[in-house]
Amino acid sequence: MADSIALELTLSPTAVDGALAVLQAVADPVRWTVLEQLSVGPSCVCNLQEHVQVPGNLLSYHLKVLRDAGLVTSSRRGRWIDYALADDARSRMAAALPGGRSVARA
């Protein structure tokens, strides 16, 4: 029988929830592809749809998940909405991994 090991959590429950939200957001292949496209630079939905082969309503859903996780920002330009990686997206993704530093934003 295996010995039980006591684990000590070094992150607060809020920080763990924030880290899990980030990891869940990036775990989807469609959202990962969106993040790859936005890592090159800001883009409107019409440009993203050329690289992400999902219906428009599903792409909007995935962008909302990424916005809610704080990884993507949006700005309106006339009738278009441009999306970009949040300034701290890369550091928040790295911090969400075990051994990363604490994620402050949930």
Radius of gyration: 16 Å
Number of strand elements = 3
- State the CATH superfamily name: Winged helix-like DNA-binding domain superfamily/Winged helix DNA-binding domain
Major sheet: 3 strands, antiparallel
CATH architecture: Orthogonal Bundle
What is the helical fraction, as a range of percent? Answer: 40-55%
Give helix and strand order, one letter per element, not per position. Answer: HHEHHEEH
Overall shape = elongated
* CATH domain fold name: Arc Repressor Mutant, subunit A
Beta-strand content bin:
5-15%
Strand line-up in the sheet with most strands? 1-3-2
The class by helix and strand makeup works out as alpha+beta
How many structural domains can be distinguished in the coordinates? 1
Q: Could you name the CATH class?
A: Mainly Alpha
Please give the alpha-carbon distance between the first and last residues: 39 Å
